Amino acid sequence: MREGQMRCKDVEHLLLDYSAEDLGKDKLEEIQQHISCCASCACLEDDLRKIRFHLQKMQPQIPSVELLERTRKLCHARLNVPSIPKYIWAALAALLVLTGVLMLPLAKEFMQGKALSFPLVSALILMIQNLAMLFFAPVLIQRFRLRKKNALNGFLSSGPHQA
């Protein structure tokens, strides 16, 4: 193999992009040169071209509306994940607004380029904490509910009647 010539492994990794012509001109030429000299890669490229051709000829299979609806209902029934109550979202939004209101005077101090005072640093930490809580609270609530539900299901399914 000459210096700068592509190896089969390199060509295999780039072959999908090559067949879709998603590579730069230099890479395309390098791969073409390698394929012209390597029977294995040429065969692989030919197979890929045939597969792409046949896939393009295929008509997409669209499931019926009834099947989609049954699948959706089955997934919801199996997951049975309770949604987060609206009062939780309202409380989180109120906390965010309150944090913003409390930060307004401190934001002016920060924007004036003054040295960071203890109240400013404390408020910034509080705001970051509240934002993190706002972001993660719904996820944590969902996990807690699922864990609680799974623990209850495990307790019920392994009751004394199965001992």
Q: How would you spell out the order of helices and strands?
A: HHHHHH
Low-confidence stretches: 158-163
Mind summarizing the main beta sheet? none
Radius of gyration of CA atoms, rounded to a whole number = 30 Å
Chain oligomer state: single chain
On the 0-100 scale, what is the average pLDDT?
Answer: 77
Structurally, the number of domains stands at 2
Question: What is the β-strand count?
Answer: 0
Overall helicity:
over 70%
**Large-scale geometry:** flat
Please give the alpha-carbon distance between the first and last residues. 69 Å
Helical/strand content category:
mainly alpha
Total of DSSP H or I helical runs spanning 4+ residues: 6
| Strand proportion | under 5%
What distinguishing features does this structure have?
disordered C terminus; single chain; 163 residues; 6 helices; mainly alpha; 2 domains
What does this structure look like?
The structure is a single chain. Helix content is 77%, strand content 0%. The chain has 163 residues and is an all-alpha fold. It has 2 domains: 8-57, no CATH class; 80-162, no CATH class.
Task: Give a concise summary.
This protein is an all-alpha fold. It has helices at residues 8-19, 25-37, 39-57, 65-79, 86-111, 118-157.
Write the layout of secondary structure elements.
Elements: H1 8-19, H2 25-37, H3 39-57, H4 65-79, H5 86-111, H6 118-157
Helix pairs in contact: 1-2, 1-3, 2-3, 5-6
